[in-house]
Design goal:
The protein is built from seven helices and six strands; from the N terminus they run βαββαβαβαβααα. The protein starts with a strand and ends with a helix. The chain has helices spanning about 15-25, 55-60, 70-80, 100-110, 120-130, 130-135, 145-160, and strands at about 1-5, 30-35, 45-50, 65-70, 85, 115. Strands 3-2-1-4-5-6 form a six-stranded parallel sheet, with helices on both faces. α4 (about 100-110) links the parallel β5 (about 85) and β6 (about 115). The longest helix has 15 residues, at about 145-160. By secondary structure, the protein is α/β, with parallel strands linked by helices.
């Protein structure tokens, strides 16, 4: 199963609609999404506006691939659970967020084990066409490595710093 999350603050219709269109061409692949309140409708993706934390964590654990915005909550959860992630950043110029901090975050995360970057929708769709390869980790371990644990700890320390 592919699990999409857009975070808890607002919908990210560009991401969800792109995956919904992809899912129409791949009905054999189950896709579940947490889309946020007020999100545009989907036709081929099973969706929840909001998931409580335990259900959200279970969805991430059950997923073969996590597709998400480049928000730190989603990234940290994916890293903690050792899930391969395909990330598309929200863009300030499209008013999906206040600025391009997610672009900067994804540039920093790009190339880290289990993190696959898509900076636009065509790249996202091309990566989804290889979802099984991404989910398999291309030799990456399914369990979080010591390096991933250190990365999560460093990110948490940075976020919690005043």
């Amino acid at each position: 199963m592919i699990f999409i999350t857009v975070g808890s603050q607002m919908p990210f219709d560009r991401l969800v609609q792109a995956v919904d269109a992809w899912a129409a061409k791949h009905p054999e692949v189950p896709v579940l999404a947490q889309v946020g309140r007020g999100a545009a409708p989907t036709q081929h993706v099973q969706r929840h506006e909001v998931l409580e934390p335990t259900a959200f964590r279970r969805c991430v654990q059950d997923a073969s691939l996590l597709v998400a915005h480049a928000g730190m909550g989603s990234v940290l959860t994916g890293l903690e659970l050792g899930k391969p992630m395909l990330l598309l950043p929200r863009l300030g110029e499209l008013r999906e967020t206040r600025n391009d901090h997610q672009v900067a975050t994804l540039k920093w995360l790009q190339g880290k084990p289990g993190v696959h970057a898509a900076f636009d929708v065509p790249a996202l769709l091309a990566a989804l066409d290889r979802w099984q390869e991404l989910a398999a980790g291309k030799g990456e371990t399914a369990e979080p490595s010591a390096a991933q644990h250190r990365l999560v700890a460093a990110l948490r320390d940075f976020i919690d710093a005043d």
